[in-house]
Amino acid sequence: MRFLASYVLTGRVQAIGAVSALLGLSLVLPPVGLLSSAAVALVTLRLGGAEGATVIGISALLSALLGGFFVGSPASFASYGAVLWVPAWIVAYVLRERVDLALALEAGVVVAAAGVVGVYVFTDTPSDLWRGSLELMLRPLLDNPPPGFSVEQLRERLDWLAGYMTGVVAAGSLLGVTASLFLARWWQAQLFNPGGFGQEYLALRGHSPLALGTIALLVAALAAQGLAAEVAGNLLAVALGFYVVAGVAVLHSLCAGLAAKRFLLVVLYGALLVVPHVLAPVALAGLADVWLDLRRWGRSAGA
Description:
DUF2232 domain-containing protein; mainly alpha; transmembrane helix; membrane; transmembrane
């Protein structure tokens, strides 16, 4: 990983080659796409927004040429790259200019929320599109249900889930951008400021404007009806994606000060991976930390 980071910062040609090659490899191994966007973020963090934008632009042209040659669709391959690179560039640019990790991630929330709004503006009923995709994935179960299985209940749950898939996908994309930014910041710290990323991550704490907006979205999702409630719920899913990350940082920081920190951290991250129900309280911790400064309470308890 350190070698890749060093190579990306060797020069513009090397950065463009790495970004484009990783994008192509991600068509076979999708997680590699995070490395491609992290490389863009690293260039932006270290060399500035203009250089990052230049790398994106030339990489997009190169990707269009390769896409046209191999798959006969220049625009689709370049667009795929842009979807990965542009959000990573935005959050990295904000972090470089403001030196505020939370603000950078909140900028990512705004980008993801804009995507959700765009879907509703340009698509009459997004839920219909998601419902068709969900039914296609579950077609064998719907056509041949096991004894005692209620197809009607499953369809009802699919209808409900389809209404909020836009927000779920946007939140997932936000987490992907977050992972890319974290990786790029870790690379930068490894090369120029060892240990700096860990301190920055453990201090991650949201700002009140987004927190207040999140509470307003929660109220709207519960109080409104129809399309308004659906849109608010989808936007809320995006905001909560950020607060899951912030909540994990809070809990990690609190565990780091305890004697059994290694065991507790393994339990924490293991639960996040295998027990989806813990995401809600973790997000609540991240949201509450905006006003309560939970790390301060942890320090007071340990004093």
